[in-house]
Amino acid sequence: EDEQIVAEIMGRRFFPDLITHKTWEGFHFAGHEIRITEATDCYGAVVWPSALVLCYFLETNSKQCNLVDKNVIEIGAGTGLVSIVASLLGAFVTATDLPELLGNLQHNVLQNTKQKCKHQPCVKELSWGIDLEKNFPRSSRHFDYILAADVVYHHPFLDELLLTFDHLCKNDTVILWAMKFRLEEENKFVDRFQTLFDLEMISNFPSLNIALYKAMRKGRMKA
């Protein structure tokens, strides 16, 4: 079953017939052909398999996870594929990442959502753990969903990442997080994450070493 679903997920990707001066990959999600411009010199400007897993879940579970008119933020949006799919599914999306990635992110989001979405998504800078209250004040910012794909890897900002999850998440916010398991140090982040949030694995793909989680604040999952 794992291999069959993984084949379906990876089958959503296609490549250009002709090589052009811009490197791009294509994807089929939410009834649209999505073209993503990538940059090979930066982790954040490449589409990783975790993003495809999360996009596939959002599309195939649109009834249980209805994004229409929901306020959604993606952290570590990278190329913007997840944010684009969420937008095409009817959400009002804020796609966030580091300042050096915003140009490519904005290009992809605009190219693939203009005049195609109920709500035009916005792109905003978010450096994990920095100026959170200033840029995303808790009193006026409420997100129904936080989306994250492959935000845990070998980087020195895991403390800041956990702080960012904590700041953005209200009592009724749902976190959907796709994670590729790599090194033991990074895997320990899951244990730390569970000190603040209830965590439920909703999909597991051993052939990709990727798990998809749903999370809410402690004590809110069953409620």
UniProtKB/TrEMBL annotation:
Please give the name of this protein: MT21E methyltransferase
GO BP annotations of the record are: methylation
Question: What Pfam families does this protein's entry cite?
Answer: Methyltransf_16
Q: Which organism is it from?
A: Drymodes brunneopygia
What Gene3D superfamilies does UniProt report for this protein, alphabetically?
Vaccinia Virus protein VP39
| Alphabetized UniProt keyword annotations | Methyltransferase, S-adenosyl-L-methionine, Transferase
Molecular function (GO) terms for this protein are:
methyltransferase activity
| Top-rank taxon | Eukaryota
Q: Which InterPro entries match?
A: Methyltransf_16, SAM-dependent_MTases_sf
